[in-house]
Specification:
By secondary structure, this protein is an alpha+beta fold. The protein has two domains: 44-149; 164-382, no CATH class. It has helices spanning 2-24, 53-65, 155-161, 221-231, 271-278, 302-312, 376-382; strands at residues 44-45, 70-82, 101-113, 125-135, 140-144, 171-184, 187-202, 205-218, 238-246, 249-256, 259-264, 291-293, 297-300, 322-332, 335-349, 352-365. The strands form two sheets. Strands 11-10-9-8-7-6-16-15-14-13-12 form an eleven-stranded antiparallel beta sheet.
Length: 385
């Protein structure tokens, strides 16, 4: 009898546990996240509060999905259950003691390219994603979870990955190659420009080493003139520069004829701001809405590829050119570890055809352990700033 009673208690306890896990606290916002061993973004709470869950859901679509590449519109929200392990989530400045409950649900919305010329109700694609909502005493906040493969990138994830202070102590190596093949009548001309950039950053100082190499072959001085107009005249083989923060001033320093010269960077107060405004790995016309999550990091979505190619090639072509391009980022150790950019463009006009190719590979390493070696003569120069 005692044995039967014990078994019945065990079964009853197990039954209650199952109910608790499935209906009262069995859901995790970050379950199924991509690349968990390398991602550091575990979610972010909205800055604003909203009167209802539905208003918070609409705000998520408006703030996190909509962007330069996409129009986005809220459709519906369906609650799936309560959230477990709330204490492990990064809730920012939100007082955990004020959270009455948290729920996870399926958010439905629709998207279409921002430059779409289709009728207002045409050309939309319906999407779904899991979103968490926090119930406070008299309002709600949304919690943007970690990303899953196939998701459109949220604004919170994208901004976290490109937060400029992440790159203030690291080593960056970039190799950019531009090729041109031009045929005009019976003449042909080929050119290749390679620009390698090494950047080391340590707290308040950054060292940049730029190496430029140009190779040309073929005939036709006119073609050579076109090449120089597009890419600029031949540059020095190697150029070194330092960017230095002293107090709330940033100086760009170069050496000419063994003499160091410094130029004050107007409107910039720190190295983080300078990096953010000069980081070529993140072109200025990009935002989160161009990208989708991949197993390794993130890459341009199809319409993002088209917009990217048109933006990047806008100074090189007229309407009618064939253009294709893509950008991929690899995330490792919680940071962007590699970026790869490719662009191909060809245009034909009567007896002239031009093909352009652009490739750029950038790697990031030494996060938190990079140090910058300062030459003795530059160290003496620094004391004069």
């Amino acid at each position: 009898m005692k044995k039967a009673k014990f078994l019945s208690l065990v079964l009853a306890y197990a039954s209650c546990a199952c109910i608790l896990l499935t209906s009262c606290g069995g859901l995790s916002p970050n379950e199924g996240m991509s690349n968990p061993e390398n991602e550091s973004f575990l979610g972010k709470v909205s800055d604003e509060t909203y009167p209802t869950v539905e208003e918070a859901a609409k705000a998520f679509v408006r703030n996190e999905i909509k962007g330069n590449a996409l129009k986005a519109a809220y459709l519906s929200y369906e609650k799936k259950g309560k959230v477990r392990e709330l204490g492990s989530l990064p809730l920012g400045k939100v007082d955990r003691g004020e959270i009455a409950s948290a729920e996870l649900g399926e958010l439905s919305y629709r998207i279409k390219p921002a430059d779409s010329e289709e009728a207002p109700e045409e050309g939309w694609t319906e999407c779904e994603r899991s979103v968490c909502f926090l119930a406070l005493p008299d309002s709600y906040r949304y919690f943007c979870p970690a990303e899953k493969t196939g998701n459109r990138l949220s604004k919170s994830y994208y901004e976290e990955m490109w937060r400029s202070d992440r790159f203030l102590n690291c080593t960056q190596h970039a190799k950019n190659t531009i090729t041109i093949e031009m045929k005009q009548g019976g003449m042909s001309f080929n050119a290749e420009l390679t620009v390698s950039v090494d950047v080391k950053t340590d707290t308040n100082i950054m060292r940049l080493q730029t190496t430029v190499k140009m190779q040309t072959s073929g005939d036709g001085s006119a073609a050579g003139d076109v090449f120089e107009q597009l890419l600029g005249p031949g540059s020095r083989t190697s150029v070194s520069a330092f960017v230095v923060q002293k107090g709330k001033r940033v100086w760009y320093c170069t050496q000419e004829s063994d003499v160091w010269r410094a130029t004050l960077v107007e409107g910039v107060e720190n190295l983080s701001q300078w990096y953010s405004e000069n980081n070529d790995s993140q072109p200025l016309f990009f935002d989160h809405s161009y990208f989708i999550k991949t197993d390794e990091g993130f890459s341009l979505a199809p319409e993002g590829q088209a917009l990217f190619a048109e933006n990047l090639a806008s100074g090189f072509y007229e309407d009618g050119a064939d253009i294709s391009g893509n950008v991929e980022y690899t995330v490792s150790g919680g940071n962007v570890a590699k970026s790869k950019l490719e662009l191909d463009l060809s245009v034909s006009r009567q007896k002239t055809s031009i093909a352009y190719g652009v490739s750029a590979l950038c790697t990031y390493s030494g996060f938190g352990s990079t140090s910058v070696t300062i030459p003795a003569d530059f160290e003496s120069f620094l004391s004069t700033l």
